[in-house]
Amino acid sequence: MPEEMNDGALLSALAPVVDDNLRRHVAESVVWEPHDFVPFDEGRNYAFMGGDDWSPEQSTLSDVGKLALSVSLLAADNMPSFHRELAYQLRTGPWWRWVGRWTAEENRHAIVLRNYLVVTRAVDPVELERVRMAHMTANFRYPSMGLLQVLANAAFDETASSIRHRNSAGVVGEPLAASICNRIALDDELQRTFYANILTAALEVVPDQVVRAVADAVKGFRIPLIPLPNNRDSTAELAAAGIYDPTREAELVFAPLLEHWNIFDRTDLGEQGQQAQQELTALRVS
After folding, report:
1. Which long-range contacts (CB under 8 A, 24 or more apart) does 133-139 make?
2. What count of other Cβ atoms lies within 10 Å of the Cβ of residue 47?
3. pTM (2 d.p.)
4. What distance in Å separates the CA atoms of residue 108 and residue 89, rounded to the nearest whole number?
5. Which tens digit of pLDDT belongs to each residue from 145-202?
6. Which of 71, 102, 167, 231 is least enclosed by beta carbons within 10 angstroms?
């Protein structure tokens, strides 16, 4: 069995794969502009510039649409926290270039969502800003993870995000809002592929460590809790709206990637990997 490698050695060993996948990611990414998805002709000034401030009757977006887009925006708004968590592990060579690219893509999501919500007066912009300030001040931190677990968690997180955005597109009830959700989902799916490909390469180098890291990531996985006005529970509300149900994570988030990585049919595992493989057996798709 291959010897264990520490995170520094893995960063170096996998750097060429990261470089190749970053080039592939950029080549496959569709160039899109946030302003193209915003109906600026619907916009008008707020009271500060002589117009009218927001009032509830101005919104034409459904309640579930407001929930879906607000949660997505607040998650994207806290990008500095997510950036820091990745940057702590990946501050070197092509890994660092990937962190920059990923952060820029996520920030683009925040730009289009905020512009859409504010221009269309879909939600109260003052309340949205107050929640954003509280969310970013409270900050976000993942529990301590090694490199391989960070990559596995990121693959699961992007999968979950793509599911949330695809489902949001189906329920927001407004074609332009739906197109924004689908556009973001496409980015999520490409990002998931990046992380999944790096772990596929790592399986050829340290299979036991990867399977152990994947099992740990599954065990500790939680979607970020996004603060909503009046202390509402974002996870519960997303589930009730049919946007994202944590009880289906095993089926929709974990199982497809475990099959992609061929976790259950590997024959190159030692004791550590076999133990982790056994822990994951309940997630196997028959």
Report:
1. 134/227, 135/74, 135/77, 135/78, 135/226, 135/227, 136/77, 136/78, 136/80, 136/81, 138/227, 139/78, 139/81
2. 9
3. 0.92
4. 23
5. 889 998 999 999 999 999 999 999 999 999 999 999 999 999 999 999 999 999 999 9
6. 231
Q: How far from 150 is each of 156, 199, 221, 276, CA to CA, in Å?
A: 10, 10, 11, 17
Q: How far is CA 50 from the centre of its chain?
A: 39
Q: Is 24 exposed, middle or buried (0-12, 13-18, 19+ CB in 10 A)?
A: middle
**Token duo for residue 158:** 């992007």
Q: Are strands 232-233 and 227-228 parallel, antiparallel or unpaired?
A: antiparallel
Nearest to 162 by CA among 193, 187, 180: 187
- Pick the more confident residue, 259 or 284: 259
Nearest C-alpha neighbor of 145 from the set 97, 90, 101, 185: 90
Per-position DSSP letters for the chain, written without gaps between them? -PPP--HHHHHHHHHHHHHHHHHHHHHHSPP--GGGG--GGG----GGGTS----GGG--S-HHHHHHHHHHHHHHHTHHHHHHHHHHHH-SHHHHHHHHHHHHHHHHHHHHHHHHHHHTT-S-HHHHHHHHHHHHHH---PPP--HHHHHHHHHHHHHHHHHHHHHHHHHS--HHHHHHHHHHHHHHHHHHHHHHHHHHHHHTT-HHHHHHHHHHHHHH--PPPPEEGGGEEHHHHHHHTTS--GGGHIIIIIHHHHHHTT-TT-----HHHHHHHHHTGGG---
- Between CA 286 and CA 283 the distance in angstroms is 9
d(CA 122, CA 48): 19
